[in-house]
Design a protein that fits this description.
It is built from five helices and two strands, in the order αααβααβ. With 120 residues, it is mostly helical.
Length: 120
């Protein structure tokens, strides 16, 4: 019962227009035998790549240990910006990215459910 006041506090903040946490941040904090990478760490890792890779429509991206799809989601966000000149139409750009550039591998199909959705 110790967590109840904190949950009510979070709920109150959400209703009053406070910060809405990223669902993948919440999953990263769950205790289990699996370790999820927080979105902010993924962004720091992706920041290490040269900026021009986000505008290359011929690259393929593989997450060989896909759980929540956080790596693929963050990569897709950057590609949506970087490929804007090559694919001015947002729907065409999104389709190219999700159908030709992003790949994920998981041990169980259920692990891919969050990554299965091509909505950013």
């Amino acid at each position: 019962m110790e967590n109840k006041p904190e949950k009510v506090n979070l709920f109150t903040r959400l209703i009053k227009g406070g910060h809405v946490p990223d669902i993948l941040d919440c999953i990263a904090n769950l205790s289990s035998d699996e370790v999820f990478t927080p979105p902010e760490l993924v962004d720091k890792m992706l920041d290490l790549f040269p900026e021009d890779i986000w505008s290359n429509p011929d690259l393929k991206w593989l997450d060989p240990a896909c759980k929540t799809g956080i790596f693929l989601r963050q990569i897709a966000k950057r590609l949506m910006v970087g490929l804007r000149d090559k694919f001015p139409d947002e729907a065409e750009r999104r389709k190219h990215i999700f159908h030709n550039m992003l790949y994920g591998i998981a041990l169980r199909r259920s692990e891919l459910r969050p990554a299965d959705n091509d909505n950013l």
